[in-house]
Amino acid sequence: MDDQNATSSAAVSRTDTREVEPRYLALLETEREAWWNSANFDTWKNLYVSEYARGFYVVDLLRKYAPDIEIGGARVLDIGCGDAGVIVAFAETGAQISGIELDRKSLTRAKVRAEEHGVRAGLLAGVAEHLPFEDGTFDLVILDNVLEHVVHRERTLDQIRRVLRPGGLLYMVTPKPFSMYSLWNDPHYDLAGLVLLPRRLQIWYFEKIRGGGEGTYDVGVIPTRWRLRRLLSAAGFRVEVSPRELWVNYLRARISRPEEVRPGLKRVLSRWMAQRQWPFTNRLSRWFWDVTIGSNFFLARRVD
Is 164 helix (H, G, I), strand (E, B) or coil? Predict the structure, then answer.
């Protein structure tokens, strides 16, 4: 098999895992009947399934922007690891991986997923504010779309700094609350304008009006990029790469295979962008993508 075919085969296996993960996917599908909305369930399900491909993206990002971290053999902690897709990807790359997750159903699915991939991972129930690890245990901590869900953000970042070795890295992603896309399509529940409401109204609207159910809304106030910079600095972290650079890098990687983008306008736009360089290099276009559809990507190093 030549290099091009090998790359294509690897990409397909990361996005279409039906042959590799039949038990996991069947277990995930059992949640549909109890979900508040079937169409929203498909969005939620796809987020978990795509964790696996996202894990390899994070590996590639680290190799590009943090080459001092040797992924093979690195000690990695994924906080809020969900269904362990990122964990599996890192384990298959040679990392020593641990995961912590609050949701027991996710932990059950995560263990099945890891078994189907034949990888070993330390999966524990717990919360970000109280990490059950010794000081300086990890080279890298992943906090991917989790900070907006925790109760105490400052305590979470303090705990992350504690379990990182000196000079260790934090890879953190949150939604960008006031990007145009987030206003049109809430990043958690696909509800237009939800992020503009006071949190109490968000909870009431989702749980009562849209039928989410009592106690199901678990999103706090989503922090702005400015606020995240201040939180990281106060916790003893130094931002290593511009969040805009990381976002544009992610966007470019995401649309490099337009056939894997959701059908419709997104796929059409991805095909157009994939054939051009300037949307990712022009300063004005980079600003535009960041403001309209960006997320907050951070790569921060523990400072001693």
Answer: strand
Q: Is residue 233 part of a domain?
A: yes
pLDDT in tens, 229-239: 999 999 999 99
- The Cα 54–Cα 76 span in angstroms is 15
pTM assigned to the model: 0.88
For residues 262-277, average pLDDT = 80
pLDDT band for position 210 (cuts 50, 70, 90): confident
Q: Residue 99 is part of a domain; what is its CATH number?
A: 3.40.50.150
Terminal C-alpha separation, the chain: 48
Q: What is the DSSP letter of 30?
A: T
How many CB atoms lie under 10 A from the CB of residue 107? Answer: 21
pLDDT of res. 276:
87
Residue range of the domain that includes 141: 3-187+222-302
Domain for residue 282, yes or no? yes
- C-alpha span between 101 and 127 (Å, rounded): 7
Residue 237 lies in a domain: yes
| CA–CA separation, 85 and 223 (whole Å) | 25
Asked if residues 144 and 174 have their Cβ atoms less than 8 Å apart, the reply is: no
Better pLDDT: 267 or 157: 157
Q: Which runs of consecutive H residues, i.e. helices, occur in 16-127? A: 22-29, 38-49, 51-65, 85-92, 104-117
Nearest residue to 234 (alpha-carbon basis) of 177, 157, 165: 157
Count: domains in the chain: 1
State the pLDDT confidence band at 260, using cuts at 50, 70 and 90.
low
